Each structure stands twice: as structure tokens, then as C-alpha cells.
Amino acid sequence: MARKMCPKCGSRDTAHILWGMPAMSLELEDELENRRVVLGGCCVPMPEPRYHCNECKDDFAYRRIFGGIIKRFHCSIGGFFGRNYVCGFDIEKYGLCLRYVSNEGIHLDVDEDGFFQSDIKLEIPLSDDMITRFTYDVMKCYPDEWKKKYIDKDILDGYSWELDIELDSGEKIASYGINKEAPYWKSLIKVLKKYGIPEFE
Ligand SMILES: [Zn+2]
What we know:
The protein is α+β, with helices and mostly antiparallel strands and 201 residues long. 20% of the residues lie in helices and 36% in strands.
């Protein structure tokens, strides 16, 4: 089985965390030796992380329950030269509608002005049910476990991206990158495409 990718550093040298007293077996011994499994101990923290990264030593994939929905979502990517893409929704401001804009070289936003200026724009209506599923799909990309920033300093002219999420519980998630993607960025883009966003890279 492929190992799970760490949302912080992108390494696949990760291990499943086994909590509690393990029932030792030859198979488990083998997995412990290869660090496909690590022992978490008897005190299970809340929330409980399910994986450990052997590379950056962080635990991840916390077993968390997001009872609510994402009420504000904003995601953008753009080159210092080239196309910019922005998509998002703000249920309180604009209702149940996923907005998408894309254009060449102009700073844009999904607010009224930016939306108006753009050369490609879309408004995708969302139902309550879709917002719930969208929340679930987005949270499966572990955005709450992403680093605050991902930066590659060795590239001068490149691109940058931003992700801003607000859940209706009030929890806020924010991350950005310059010339470097978050490990689960591509998974997030797949989610956006699933909900009708045509192009985002
Ligand atoms: Zn890691």
C-alpha cells in the first residue's frame, strides 16, 4: 500500500500510528522495523493523529470531526507574469455560489470589481448539500494541517498561491506559497474541478 503523504513536508516516508498496547506479531515487528508503523503509546491525544512523518517528525491526519460547513472559501494562484485564477464563495456576502475568475496579468479578486473586470468568469450555484460535500472533500486535503507558508527562495519570477477558509464554527485556516505548492495542493485543485472550476494552474 502506498504510504500517506505528509501535508507539511510532502514526504511519503510516513507511518501509521498504532495507539494503545499493540498485539505483537512478526508482521507488526516487520512494519515497526520499516517504520511503516510507529507506536503512539497508551495515552491517546484528542484529537488523535493517525499518521507520523518519519521525515519532519510531525504527526498528521488528525481524526477530527468537522460538524459544520465552510462558510467562506478563497483560493487563488497566479504568476508574476501570466494568468491569474481566483475562486471562492462567501455564503454571507454572496450566497450559495462558487465564483471563479481568470485573467491575464491583472490583480483580481472575486469581489464585485475584480469579478467585473475579468475575461473569464463563472458563477456556479451550490446547494446546501453540495456545500456539505465540498467541505468534506476540501478537509480531506488536510488544509488545517498545512504549513502557514511554502516558499522556494531560489526562484525569482514564479507564481504564488493563497488559500483562506473560514468554517462556520469560526475556525480560520490560511496558507500561502511562493514558487512552491503545498503537498496536497493538487488534491485541492482536483476538488475544485469536481465542483466545476475549469482551469486552475
Ligand atoms: Zn513531514
